[in-house]
Amino acid sequence: MPRHIACLTFDFDTWSSFAVRGMTTPTPISRGEFGLVGAKRILALMAKYGIRTTWFVPGIVIDTYPEACAEIVAAGHEIAHHGYTHELPAAMDAEREEREMLRAIECIRRLTGRAPRGYRSAAWDLSDATLDLLLKHGFDYESSMMGHDHQPYFVRQGDVVSADEPMRFGKQTRLVELPISWSLDDHPHFEFLRTKSFLMPGLQAADGVLKNFTDDFVYMTREETDWGALTYTFHPYVVGRGHRMLLLERLILALQEMGASFMAMEDLADEWLGRQDARAAAQ
Fold this sequence. Notes:
Blueprint: E1 3-11, H1 16-19, H2 26-49, E2 54-57, H3 59-64, H4 66-74, E3 78-81, H5 94-112, E4 118-119, H6 130-136, E5 141-142, E6 153-157, E7 160-162, E8 165-168, E9 171-177, H7 186-190, E10 193-194, E11 199-200, H8 206-223, E12 227-234, H9 236-239, H10 242-257, E13 261-262, H11 265-282
Parallel strand pairs: 1-2, 1-12, 1-13, 2-3, 4-5, 5-9
Antiparallel strand pairs: 6-9, 7-8, 10-11
Helix pairs in contact: 8-10
């Protein structure tokens, strides 16, 4: 029987993604704080359909809104690592990145009673040191890369890449990659963002985005005749707006009609590893 999985994930950044861009005036901060409103709506919707999800939460958000984060835990959802601030790992040196990583681990441990199993970097931009740090500090999975769309894979460490030479591949690690895609992220589709250096137009109609989201799942069911998993990324301050909440519910209903199994990321990683073990034992 074919098995097709949908992971609904939420990057609960609130105002942290604006602050690291220097946008700390009242309006962008309030825009991020709308994520608290969106989070309540999302939790109610997930409870309605009995779906367990994964929330990637910066440590600074846990420290600022402990009650809101505790509600996510109380509802049975997974809390995963999303840095302490929302600064890009590639913009930090290795020492600072590790300090921030450890600080956020302690925030999550304090909130949930255990260390996080999964990691997602800010803006999906890993540094040269990130994978070493994830392995050093015991993470089981990572979700910032795009080497497949329907299949997890083991992360390579130590690739050597230059513009004018063939790539030299590094070694395979035990870290599981649960891949993502900008096309399955609500932020670039919907968010209008203007700074001195760039413009993100956003503000697309929800129906067109919903068709993208559902068509990718349709394609997976055709391409992966045995087993496949697709990860969707949402931000509560983005998807929490009314017409986008309707999109999210329609997505759930459409995926249910196609036989989707909904799963948190840590459970997906466990299932995929179990399949690898079973395959190895059968050889």
